[in-house]
């Protein structure tokens, strides 16, 4: 029986929702791996030029056809559903998450074009949970270390994104969000027109993102009643990037790290106030 | 106090060191391409496990990419340019279910990789023609070569262009025009 009072389990449940959606999306678009698709293995295999790498990964390469990857994605869906019934700390739960990790690593060899930060965050979380929950070897301390790693990576991601925006003239001048929203790839016509009409809103949004991302790690050390402001901001931020920019998988991958941030915050022995 | 070594303690230590290195490698691979970051990314990180967290910065993606192709009918005639439909509008459910984002991201990654490698092919490799042997170029050529041909013995050319999406004040511009390839 799954209980949500365990932080690792909560992280896994939230992440699983996103992974299930993302895997089903890949299944829908599985033709991109067919011989005439964008990620056809006929072409993608050219990346592996070194003979030793080729022979090492050769058994996996046989999977990289549209039917092979479709089977892999179906198995991945079943593994994710299975994880709803078996706790992470059980042997079955650990086997299921390990197989899920193997399927993610395998697919990453062919999806290095097209994968994004949410895929990397998902893989990072899954591998950490596998390593820190190995039955018979794991300890409460190691599980805590895993949760710390996930929370710190999440904070690092926001800070790096914030600093990279802070050094960008386009972000500082307050035009970046309008420009991104005006693309068909990541934007929206309505949002673009709205921001063109209200330039001050554009400046406010740019600086809001820069400041909040840069100082996001404060949520680890501030008293919880202040720290939660960052998590609420993150929730709204990811919800709107999903809504306006179509970045749905980021929402689940980053929400999955919030229980880890909550955990770290509650482990801090000191407070600013 | 002496640490008593048993398999559980050793495993705990190994995993902790691994995670610490992973975190350190992630920090080292942000912002700027250095020797060590290139080594980690291209020599060690086969599974793309070291993230780059600089989302939409320092240069926000403010252009839409377009991939077009045309066939050579004879020495003087060419077919009209056809565009591969990639940047289609999102649906009302895209916040939850958005499979189309994959095609867009793949093409965007491939084009960005191609665009970023053009200067080095010009300067270091000495000839832009060598770009034709690069992975992103071959992916684009392969993608356009799958569309219906004008004739059995077909020569196809592709063009990569960029536009500013919903903002109409900037004209679309050319990124790369390929030679004609027999497909």
Protein model, in words:
The complex is a heterodimer of chains A (273) and B (183). Chain A is built from 15 helices and no strands. By secondary structure, chain A is mostly helical. The longest helix of chain A is centred in the middle third of the chain and has 27 residues, at 140-166. In chain A, 46% of the residues are buried. The mean pLDDT of chain A is 93. The termini of chain B are far apart. Chain B has 2 domains: 1-57, no CATH class; 64-182, no CATH class. Chain B has helices at residues 7-28, 35-44, 101-123, 135-145; strands at residues 64-72, 82-83, 155-163, 173-177, 181-182. Chain B contains 4 helices and 5 strands, in the order H-H-E-E-H-H-E-E-E. The radius of gyration of chain B is 23 Å and the shape is elongated. The interface between A and B is large, with 80 and 66 residues.
As for the number of domains of chain A, it is: 2
Radius of gyration of chain A, rounded? 21 Å
The average pLDDT score of chain B comes to: 88
Q: Helix fraction of chain A?
A: over 70%
**Approximate strand percentage of chain B:** 5-15%
The number of helical elements of chain B comes to 4
Categorize the overall geometry of chain A: globular
How are the secondary structure elements laid out?
The complex is a heterodimer of chains A (273) and B (183).
Chain A: H1 7-28, H2 41-44, H3 51-61, H4 66-82, H5 91-108, H6 117-132, H7 140-166, H8 169-172, H9 176-181, H10 189-197, H11 199-214, H12 218-221, H13 224-245, H14 248-255, H15 258-267
Helix pairs in contact in A: 1-4, 1-6, 1-14, 1-15, 4-5, 5-6, 6-7, 6-14, 7-11, 7-15, 13-14, 13-15
Chain B: H1 7-28, H2 35-44, E1 64-72, E2 82-83, H3 101-123, H4 135-145, E3 155-163, E4 173-177, E5 181-182
Antiparallel strand pairs in B: 1-2, 1-3, 3-4, 3-5
Helix pairs in contact in B: 3-4
